[in-house]
Amino acid sequence: MSSPQLGKLNEENEAEEEASQPLNHATAPATASERKKMKNKKNKERKKKKKAAARDAGSVAPNINVTWAKLMKGARAFENGESSEAAKEASFSKLACLSLMESSFHEFIVESSEESPATMVEEAWNGLRESIVIYEGKPVGTLAAMDSTKEPLNYNQVFVRDFIPAGLAFLMKKPAEPEIVKNFLLKTLHLQGREKKVDNFTLGEGVLPASFKVSSDSPGGKETIVADFGGSAIGRVAPVDSGFWWIILLRAYTECTGDHTLREHPEMQKGMRLILKLCLSDDFDTFPTLLCADGCSMIDRRMGIYGYPIEIQALFYFALRCAVQLLKPEDGGKELLERIAKRIAALCFHIQQYYWLDFKQLNNVYRYKTEEYSHTAINTFNVMPESIPDWVFDFMPSSRGGYLIGNVSPARMDFRWFLVGNCIAILSGLATDKQATAIMDLIEERWDDLIGEMPLKIAYPALEGDEWRTITGCDPKNTRWSYHNGGSWPTLLWLLASACSMTGRLQIAKRAIELAEQRLSKDGWPEYYDGMTGKYIGKQARKFQTWSMSGYLIAKMMIENPNNVSLLSI
């Protein structure tokens, strides 16, 4: 029984057929160069045949179950005494069909092992849809991961920061699917109104949850939402970034749909004001930056980012600029908008002036004088030149490139590279055009360090030895070149692609996407990769990680239509 639809040519058979053909001495290539050209031509023809066979297999394979069901029905009819020709043929062909199916599925699986970008996109969308969480009949978010091989821990919850790329993917999709984003924004706003306690301490009214899950454990099986505001998190730290991401997503939703009724709703306006009042309240600080604890952002474990981390400062600036477009001047909004405008100006100056590092500025810091008193001091934070780590001198290109360093506070500069903060600075306009170009230059110049074999390094370099023991507290998850400590995170593709679109450097994003496409799907969409170049699947990485899929989808859509960046950029 033949099946032309599933008849994939085998390479060995082709080679045998090729060898059996008589050699035409009149046309045979006479030189090694000509023979090489002929071989390349035949290889191309062979690849075309394999692709055609793969397409045929893809179109027919879903129908094999139907065909088998029909044959089994006919066979049973014949075995029960029916004498129709169809029943006879089905019965006699039963074993032949089974053999064919086994062979066909084997070939189909082999052909599918090297997935095309189109197949990966479809797979990512399917995975994203499977992760959708339903509450009272409505989609309200996506699970963090769907890895059934590991204990769920809190990966079976909807994380605010994790949902951002998923929400943006649904907004960028053609046609857009904004309903899940709207429901997510409303549900998290509702959770903001709950009383929030960690031990006996009540958190600020404007704090948004880090995550939430839908539970049916209440009497009668009624659905309820259980939120975590940091009380169950590693280190019991409230998520500073959740509120900022919420405001950024609200603006993206408004830009996508043109629907201003949601952002103008009194409850939405109140929610924004509560978030911003947490950040704009008077305190003892002399800087416009936000003072934060370790573990308050995507890097949610102890990694030495306490103080004024660039990721939070960039997100803070981004949220402030979004709020200017979203807030109404009524009901105290005018006074708040004035405070926001002043903070934007001060924060922009502070970051551009004190966080920026390129070859020239590194040389200046290296030559700093210390113990300077007065307003004319050049070494404003009294940073000791001896505190500059050795790796920075090799890492910093002398010709082009620069970046916003990780942290600045009295007598301290954290020279580590953090991708999220630098990309957000580009999208929000916090980085100047010249600085944005230099950041992209640095990525190109230090491709092996920051991209490696799997994009992208969340931080560089890794903490090692005594530094790792002291700063992380011997964290077994954040060992060198793993997880937050120099691990590679595929989800960050969306931020890189967005920054590339803003700066007109899409070739960088394309190159990074092509790298990810070589392994990401085959490896099961891991959360992160380990190793200096991101060569190994992370030792504790969950697979089928939702934001690994959504990050890839956004990156692909950004390349196909760079105007998608308008949902984010200001």
Low-confidence stretches: 1-32, 56-73, 75-79, 90-113
**Biggest beta sheet attributes:** 3 strands, antiparallel
Mean model confidence by pLDDT? 85
Beta fraction: 5-15%
Number of E-type strands: 15
Which structural class do you get from the secondary structure elements? mainly alpha
Count of alpha and pi helical runs: 21
What distance lies between the first and last C-alpha atoms, to the nearest angstrom? 63 Å
Estimate the global geometry from the Cα principal axes: globular
Percent range of helical residues = 40-55%
Q: What is the C-alpha radius of gyration, as a whole number of Å?
A: 29 Å
Strand order of the largest sheet: 3-6-7
What are the main properties of this structure?
single chain, 570 residues, mainly alpha, three-stranded antiparallel beta sheet, 8% strand, globular
What topology does this entry show?
Layout: H1 11-20, H2 32-79, H3 85-92, H4 94-112, H5 117-130, E1 132-135, E2 138-142, E3 158-159, H6 160-172, H7 179-192, E4 197-198, E5 201-202, E6 211-215, E7 224-228, H8 241-257, H9 261-264, H10 266-280, H11 310-326, H12 333-354, E8 356-358, H13 359-366, H14 390-395, E9 402-404, E10 407-409, E11 412-414, E12 417-418, H15 419-428, H16 433-445, H17 447-450, E13 459-460, H18 465-472, H19 493-503, H20 506-517, E14 529-530, E15 536-537, H21 546-560
Antiparallel strand pairs: 1-2, 3-6, 4-5, 6-7, 8-9, 10-11, 12-13, 14-15
